[in-house]
Amino acid sequence: MGLGMVRPMTHFDVAIVGGGIVGSSTAYYLRKNGFTGSIGLFEQDMSFKRACTSLSWGGIRQQFSTPENIRLSQFGLALIRNLKDEFGPEADIGFKEQGYLVLATEGSVAVLEENQKLQRSMGADTEIYWGADMARRFPWINFDGIAAASFGPRNEGWFDPYSLMSIVRKAALARDVTLVQQAVAGIGRNGKITSLSTAGGETFTVGALVNAAGASAGAVAGFAGIELPVSPAKRFVYVIDCPGASEAMRKGPLTFDVTGEYFRPEGRNFIWGFTPSDDEEPKVKDWEMDESWFENRIWPALASRVPAFEAVKMIGGWIGHYDYNWFDHNGIIGRHPDIENFYFANGFSGHGIQQGPATGNAIAELICFGGYRTIDLARLGYERLQRKEPLFEKNIF
Ligand SMILES: Cc1cc2nc3c(=O)[nH]c(=O)nc-3n(C[C@H](O)[C@H](O)[C@H](O)COP(=O)(O)OP(=O)(O)OC[C@H]3O[C@@H](n4cnc5c(N)ncnc54)[C@H](O)[C@@H]3O)c2cc1C
What we know:
Elements lengths: L10 E7 L3 H12 L6 E4 L9 H4 L3 E2 L6 H15 L1 H5 L12 E5 L4 H13 L5 E4 H7 L10 E4 L5 E2 L2 H13 L4 E3 L3 E7 L1 E7 L4 E9 L5 H7 L6 E12 L5 H4 L3 E3 L4 E6 L2 E6 L17 H14 L7 E13 L6 E4 L6 E5 L5 H18 L13 H4 L11
Parallel strand pairs: 1-2, 1-11, 2-8, 4-13, 11-18
Antiparallel strand pairs: 3-7, 4-6, 5-6, 9-10, 10-11, 12-15, 12-16, 13-14, 14-15, 17-18
Helix pairs in contact: 1-7, 1-11, 3-11
The protein binds flavin-adenine dinucleotide.
């Protein structure tokens, strides 16, 4: 190679597979924590049209039952609050601080109260409404069969997930992170991870590898012979026009009903979704819309919960694939116990946009300092899968 020619990069000290919120945050926080080695961010599809991040509802809440999940989301919230200081005056993700409302039957009130206690002890403002107070506070909801409702009046809501991802990725790339627009198709291992190869036939040697491949994380781990129970779970999102909605309802929270349906305002419209039961879980992981769920499952339930939803028109919708952890539906974060340079940042199952920045920072801390400094995420490590000890959320999903 002649003098002055740039040698193509064939080695990365850290290679990150996936340029969504988790991979971009990992790259960004590596630099923020002082990592000076080379970083390669591998992304197969720069349109991000099927990435979880782009298709997400963008919700952030403190209403979890495990301290780790609360802390991960609080880190995300702090970033949102400091967005302009962190990324400059143009940074804007349209945060709508309209809260989350979680309904509970008599049978689940005890869990709601237990969760509230934990959340408040960690600085959340979660309030519980009972009896007639529920209808006074949220008059557009029919509270038949509901014993209590838990509401986060501050520090919860939703934002534009695509904007957050783009802002963080741009900031990472501005700090000497190399974007490699190729699909990773193989991982070389000799005890440790040694290399990765791309679908385009290139091979890169690597010092460490971070799996941030969203719904494909199980497949990427499989390239290294590692079993990871993370794969796509198909979810339906319906966009609804509801002419009879009051202004208060349009400014209302994201609401979870006890039978798994949820909705929130989206501009002048609403979006609806549901958590399928095990029996309902779509077997086919394609991108085909199925309106029968809207007709037969969600509409009847939500129309009886919210009278204004009796007269609605479905005006659009989309399919998203959750990055689903089939073991216990929580993030799997940290170093592989036996393969010291393979890092997991996977399986967020519906929490990952709010937890992406904190996860990126956590992985960066592991790489830079050999341990966690901001949030101890040991309980979310891969070891729990090996021990067959699931860590379930005792909340709505
Ligand atoms: C419908 C829906 C609603 C959601 N709502 C919320 C919510 O309200 N709140 C919340 O916190 N979370 C929510 N989530 C979850 C959240 O969006 C995800 O957990 C989060 O975006 C995961 O980010 P990620 O960077 O890991 O994955 P992704 O955004 O999917 O990024 C992974 C990237 O890896 C790339 N990739 C995969 N394989 C390879 C490969 N072999 N080589 C190179 N690149 C590869 C993909 O192209 C992709 O761009 C929702 C998700 C969906 C689908």
